[in-house]
Write a structure and sequence with these properties.
Elements: H1 3-34, H2 37-69, H3 76-104, H4 107-112, H5 115-142, H6 146-169, H7 173-199, H8 202-207, H9 216-247, H10 250-263, H11 268-280, H12 282-286, H13 290-326, H14 335-361, H15 364-416, H16 426-447, E1 451-453, E2 458-460, H17 461-480, H18 486-494, H19 500-513, H20 516-536, E3 547-548, E4 554-555, E5 571-572, E6 581-583, E7 589-591, E8 605-606, E9 614-615, E10 644-646, E11 650-651, E12 656-658, E13 662-668, E14 671-676, E15 681-683
Antiparallel strand pairs: 1-2, 3-4, 5-14, 6-7, 8-9, 10-13, 11-12, 12-15, 13-14
Helix pairs in contact: 1-6, 1-11, 2-3, 2-5, 2-9, 2-10, 3-5, 5-6, 5-7, 6-7, 9-10, 9-15, 10-14, 10-15, 11-14, 13-14, 13-16, 13-17, 14-15, 16-17, 17-20, 18-19
């Protein structure tokens, strides 16, 4: 991506992350303050989103696309802004009137209930305010002013939380939340119109009617096709909520809405790309630069796939810990729908940038066919599965249709003339995901229910530790598997604003200087890192779990290294007398044979946590990894003298992993005496592997 597209993307994605954070703040509060009314609110907003397609979609997409094209016509910008401003006024007035009439005539009360009459009166006002919020934001994006358009979106969300959530807390229910939406929309619309006025005089644009040469027919055609396209698109993630609201219970609708909110976290980056690419690629298409389009589409598809796979793994692993913290306890019921939705959300995430690039060309018919096919599948499957399986049926139906979006839009892209999967490296990305999922899930399992006490809640340690750990593992594996190249990372950083660009330049120089041997070392280190992660969690023990030895005795990990362990789990060495017996608390003896034998040498007896005899016999390491095992820091010859090692989770040279183990080596005539207190000492040949449950 070039600097202009990257800068626009970074402006949008930064705000997207903030908005998602605010959603995670507001939605739990709304579920608590609205109670069962949250299901009514979710249904109401889904209806409103579908309704606004007819009012706002053509205006927003049209003004964004055509302002960005900068055609060689006199006053092109002003005429486009004025054309869509007049259209926005007309459609907002009609949309507002229709909703008010529906509430006035009793249509709403007859179909949804009497409480919805007030809701729809307020929605009619929200139509007008939302129309101009979107018009101003999309116009600013067309001018390339994302640095203004996206902060306005953030301001809208902040005002909604402050007013809407505040009124819900005071007991005003759903009407109070709708008033919060209107407050944010009015404020941002006024600020946005004032910002546009600095680029184009709005009064002149509103009343300056262009000549017959102005391509009104083209703009109207784009509007109409955009409405059809976005109608199909929106139905994919709204029709399931509407159908579940009519068929299922209010409580189930609320659970499902939360599942969608969390699963759609995967769309942060794809949505930012979609918002950036429509107007950013319009000029590229106008210049008929297909090579640049193909290169851009392929790289974006690959990056999107990798990022969404990483997020999907993280959400699947951490949702059980996060849900009880964010939402009321009963919302843990949303977890299964989340798991069902995640695979499809990855597919939909890949389809979004492809869709935007196709929109940038203006050839919407093929996009409509592909999206419409997925929408038909969605409605059909939801109609079949919701009556039988409720929210789980809705999640399954929606996930299937989401996944088909990627398949269908690969076809539409080829028909339009670009190839997003040409360098997507999909098999490698899937391999990275499969490999990264193992240590991520195992670490989550290992941390268990451990939590950090805060002022008002206990925050699970896994929410703090797993995300950065998973990101590092995933990045390393992506490079090792060839899903992404290091020079690509450097190039991407260089296109960003300073000081990130300087970091990219430095990385680029470092990459060029890296030798083949260093790259091989990186591969070995990465594989060793993965193996170590698997071995670490092989015991299946979480923090705080009670561990028992082979004889059934509990191991509390508190054995005094200076005293014999009478619980049968520790071992006392005598300090290193040549060939002496080592007495264990369970009565067994460990004999170190050989002159000047050491506890860690290749020809002596190794120590054990339960009196078993682990002998290397001088013929090599007993580890299944051999003499050059990644567990051997000194190449397989582990003779030590006078060395004191006190670690948690120390791996010995024979492949034995000991958690909370203290090795105390006192050199005596070249002999090491080891006193080990083992808590959960498992060899690599153990059979107590555990998986995430």
């Amino acid at each position: 991506m070039d600097r202009s597209i990257t800068s626009a993307f970074l402006s949008i994605v930064g705000v997207k992350f903030l908005l998602i954070s605010l959603d995670f703040l507001s939605s739990p509060l709304l579920t608590r303050f609205l109670g069962e009314g949250y299901g009514d609110y979710a249904l109401l907003m889904s209806i409103f989103a579908i309704y606004m397609i007819f009012v706002s979609t053509g205006v927003g997409d049209g003004v964004r696309k055509y302002v960005a094209e900068e055609r060689d016509r006199p006053h092109w910008d002003r005429h486009v802004v004025g054309f869509y401003l007049r259209l926005a006024l007309l459609l907002a007035a009609v949309g507002c009137l229709l909703l008010a009439l529906a509430a006035r005539t009793g249509f709403i009360q007859n179909h949804l209930g009497t409480s919805y009459q007030t809701y729809f009166y307020l929605l009619s006002l929200l139509v007008f305010t939302s129309q101009f919020r979107e018009y101003t934001r999309r116009t600013l994006m067309g001018f390339g002013l994302e640095r203004y358009s996206e902060p306005l979106l953030f301001l809208d969300k902040v005002l909604f939380i402050g007013v809407g959530v505040g009124l819900a807390y005071l007991g005003y229910g759903v009407p109070g939340v709708l008033i919060g939406h209107m407050t944010g929309a009015v404020t941002t619309a006024v600020i946005g119109l004032a910002t546009i006025h600095r680029e184009v005089s709005l009064s002149t644009a509103l009343f300056d009617i262009p000549s017959r040469e102005f391509p009104r027919r083209e703009l109207f055609a784009f509007n109409g096709l955009s409405i059809v396209l976005i109608l199909f698109l929106t139905s994919l993630y709204q029709i399931d909520v509407v159908m579940l609201g009519f068929i299922g219970s209010t409580q189930e609708t609320g659970y499902y809405r939360i599942a969608l909110t969390i699963a759609e976290f995967l769309w942060i980056v794809p949505l930012a790309l979609q918002n950036t690419l429509l107007h950013s690629t319009s000029n590229i298409w106008a210049n008929n630069d297909r090579d640049r389009i193909n290169s851009l589409a392929a790289r974006i598809t690959r990056y999107t796939l990798l990022f969404t796979i990483l997020l999907a793994i993280g959400l699947a692993a951490l949702a059980p810990a996060a849900l009880p913290v964010i939402y009321p306890a009963d919302y843990i019921a949303s977890y299964v729908p989340i798991l069902l939705l995640l695979p499809g959300c990855v597919g939909f995430a890949l389809a979004r940038p492809i869709l935007a690039i196709g929109q940038g060309k203006g050839d919407l018919r093929k996009l409509i066919v592909a999206t419409g096919a997925a929408a038909v599948v969605n409605v059909t499957l939801n109609g079949l599965l919701i009556p039988q399986f409720g929210m789980h049926g809705a999640a399954t139906a929606t996930s299937v249709s989401y996944g088909l979006m990627f398949v269908f839009h690969l076809w539409s892209a080829r028909q339009i003339g670009f190839y997003p999967a040409a360098d997507a490296r999909i098999p490698r990305a899937l391999a990275v995901g499969a490999a990264a999922a193992v240590p991520i899930f195992l670490l989550t399992r290992l941390l268990g229910d451990a939590a950090v006490p805060l002022i008002v809640l206990e925050l699970p340690v896994s929410l703090l530790v797993v995300p950065p750990f998973g990101a590092v593992v995933f990045l390393v594996l992506s490079i090792l598997f060839g899903a992404v190249d290091t020079d690509e990372i450097a190039d991407l950083l260089e296109t960003a604003p300073d000081p990130i660009a300087n970091l990219g330049s430095n990385l680029q120089q470092s990459v060029r200087s890296v030798s083949t041997g260093a790259q091989l070392l990186l591969i070995v280190a990465g594989i060793g890192f993965l193996v170590a992660g698997i071995a670490l969690a092989a015991s299946g023990a979480g923090i705080g779990d009670t561990i028992t030895g082979p004889d059934g005795d509990e191991i509390d990990g508190e054995t005094n290294p200076d005293e014999p362990n009478t619980e049968g789990s520790g071992e006392t060495d005598d300090g290193g007398n040549n060939g002496t017996n080592e007495s264990d608390g369970d009565g067994s003896a460990d004999t170190d044979s050989g002159e000047d034998s050491t506890a860690d040498s290749g020809n002596g007896t190794d120590d054990t946590g339960n009196g078993a005899d682990d002998s290397d016999g001088g013929n090599g390491d007993s580890s299944p990894f051999g003499d050059d095992s990644v567990f051997d820091g000194d190449g397989g010859n582990d003779s030590e003298s006078g060395d004191t090692d006190s670690d948690n989770d120390t791996a010995s040279d024979n492949g034995t992993d000991s958690d909370n183990e203290t090795n105390s080596d006192d050199g005596d005539n070249g002999t090491d005496g080891d006193t080990d207190t083992g808590n959960d000492s498992d060899s690599d040949g153990g059979d107590d592997d555990a998986w995430y449950e």
